[in-house]
Design a protein that fits this description.
By secondary structure, the protein is α+β, with helices and mostly antiparallel strands. The chain has helices spanning 33-41, 76-83, 95-106, 116-127, 168-183, 195-199, 207-215, and strands at 3-5, 24-28, 45-46, 57-59, 63-67, 88-91, 131-137, 143-152, 155-163, 187-189, 203-206.
């Protein structure tokens, strides 16, 4: 079932009104901070081709793909790369550059979703302390990889990542997992399965288990 949202900041309960098999749940609404925060607190996120659709599309897959920070998989080759100390990883040092790099990576592709409206919305989330970035730098202090997402409580809702060097985004994801291990972080929401994320330790859980983790006290 796909709902048409109004100006009122509210979403139907996915446990009562099950989304489409694709995860599509609702259309319309806006990308205000209040609506985005409400969405993520219910496992809902915006994802749509801005060139093809005038309305925002909201997704809530019932089968969730997540990484538990303690289960992050670091391959032998990645451990070798990390020991070489070729790159430096930071947090929230240049959110704007990271989201712009994520957008530029796919902006010319069919179905590109990270356009100006989305960039502006997540930049405002970051300004208000609800979105974060992880940056990877080379020895020349060039930004060569990173990721960004929404951070609420003990959960990180990943949005996009990019690499300009081999394994750049993996380094960012590993650092994120390590930080969450140290701070009591619960899950990294990957939204959808990819071979890249599966190789890093991602696995499927039900929406019921997912939302229990999202809403559990920090």
């Amino acid at each position: 079932m796909v709902f048409q949202l109004s100006d009122r900041i509210a979403f139907p309960n996915p446990l009562v009104y099950e989304p489409e098999p694709s995860g599509l749940f609702a259309v319309g609404g806006d990308l205000s901070v209040d609506r985005l925060l409400l969405a993520y607190q219910n496992g809902i996120f915006p994802w749509y081709s801005f060139r093809d659709w005038d309305e925002i599309h909201w997704y809530c897959p019932m089968d969730r793909f997540v990484i538990f920070p303690d289960e992050i998989h670091i391959s032998h080759s990645m451990r070798t790369l990390m020991r070489k100390d070729l790159y430096h990883v930071t947090v929230n040092q240049c959110f704007d550059d990271v989201i712009e790099a994520c957008s530029a990576l796919r902006i010319e592709e069919e179905g590109a979703w990270l356009g100006k409206d989305m960039i502006d919305a997540y930049t405002e989330l970051h300004r208000q302390g609800f979105a974060a970035s992880v940056e990877v730098w080379d020895k020349q202090k060039q930004l060569v990889g990173g990721l960004y997402g929404v951070a609420i409580g003990a959960c990180f809702f990943g949005e996009s990542m990019f690499s300009r060097v081999s394994n750049g985004s993996k380094l960012a994801l590993i650092r994120l997992a390590h930080i969450m291990q140290q701070t009591g972080g619960r899950i990294i929401d990957c939204q959808f399965e990819t071979p890249h994320l599966k190789s890093m330790g991602g696995r499927h859980i039900s929406y019921k288990e997912y939302i229990r983790l999202v809403r559990a006290p920090h």
